[in-house]
């Protein structure tokens, strides 16, 4: 009898499972979607996306589009690596990266947004800001480089300026890279220990690192004031740098309308014949071939 009861229970369980099958991913590996990408997987996907970015570039030139992309986030959030992933296979004459230094005394006396406006794209350009006018809402406010009154005036003015930017025909995309405290610590410690990355670590990074919650408050105020319908903020979880880069590129491709332009078949022409040319005996200074 016990065996028959057990058999009936198993049959009911199987019938229930047949009616409501579990997703295949959860059956096999519940965390497969969150598993780190292998270098091979990342490189292949990025290569495909680079091809799409080139098509976007050619369409932007053809159609005279104007695109402005802003990247913001805490120190170590992955802004620089993301921008490099976007731009490494496209033309710097179309994809222009703007990373402004600290303002000069003259620029400090100007209207705050004035020096940023001059870098906005013209027709056929995509401008990427590695930190932007939102410095005033973040590092300047937290580190005391501007007054609270100046910060509040900026938060009130930014949506109006961005509305004018969008109405002028510029496609404006704003990305906030959200990194967790543990991952930020790991990345900043890596900068300290790795001679290739030490240049990325400034005294300001160390000061801002200790003010995690001050930055959180500043971020929250910034979103409340400037997450508008005409220029919304898009948030990217960036603890997994590879996935974040791929997701951002996909999102950009989805936000900017473009078409693949027809390409003419290209063939290399024949080289001219040597004729009377003779190789020179000039003593060229070749660099040592050590590897």
What do these coordinates show?
The structure is a single chain. The chain is of the alpha/beta class and 291 residues long. The protein has a domain at 62-255: P-loop containing nucleotide triphosphate hydrolases (Rossmann fold), CATH 3.40.50.300. It has 12 helices and 5 strands. It has a 5-stranded parallel beta sheet with strand order 2-3-1-4-5, sandwiched between helices. The radius of gyration is 26 Å and the shape is globular.
Using the coordinates shown, work out and report the CATH topology of the domain at 62-255: Rossmann fold
Strand-residue fraction?
5-15%
Number of strands: 5
Structural class of the helices, strands and pairings?
alpha/beta
What is the general shape? globular
Looking at this protein, list some descriptive labels.
Rossmann fold; five-stranded parallel β-sheet; 291 residues; alpha/beta
């Amino acid at each position: 009898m016990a065996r028959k009861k057990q058999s009936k229970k198993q049959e009911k369980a199987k019938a229930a499972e047949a009616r409501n099958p579990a997703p295949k991913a959860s059956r096999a590996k519940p965390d497969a979607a969150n598993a780190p990408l292998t270098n091979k997987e990342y490189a292949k996907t990025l290569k495909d996306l680079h091809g799409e970015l080139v098509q976007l570039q050619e369409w932007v030139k053809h159609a005279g589009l104007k695109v402005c992309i802003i990247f913001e986030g805490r120190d170590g959030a992955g802004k620089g690596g993301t921008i490099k992933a976007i731009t490494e296979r496209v033309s710097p004459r179309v994809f222009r990266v703007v990373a402004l230094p600290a303002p000069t005394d003259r620029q400090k006396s100007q209207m705050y947004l004035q020096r940023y406006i001059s870098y906005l794209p013209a027709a056929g350009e995509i401008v990427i800001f590695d930190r932007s006018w939102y410095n005033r809402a973040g590092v300047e406010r937290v580190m005391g480089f501007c007054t609270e009154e100046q910060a509040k005036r900026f938060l009130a003015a930014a949506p109006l300026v961005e509305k004018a930017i969008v109405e002028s025909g510029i496609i404006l995309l704003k990305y906030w890279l959200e990194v967790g405290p543990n991952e930020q610590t790991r990345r900043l410690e890596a900068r300290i220990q790795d001679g290739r990355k030490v240049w990325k670590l400034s005294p300001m990074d160390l000061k801002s690192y200790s003010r995690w919650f001050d930055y959180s408050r500043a971020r929250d105020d910034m979103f409340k004031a400037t997450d508008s319908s005409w220029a919304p903020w898009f948030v990217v979880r960036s603890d997994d740098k590879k996935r974040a880069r791929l997701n951002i590129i996909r999102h950009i491709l989805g936000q900017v309308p473009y078409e693949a332009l027809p390409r003419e078949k290209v063939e290399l022409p024949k080289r001219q014949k040597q004729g009377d040319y003779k190789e020179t005996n000039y003593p060229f200074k070749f660099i040592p071939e050590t590897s």
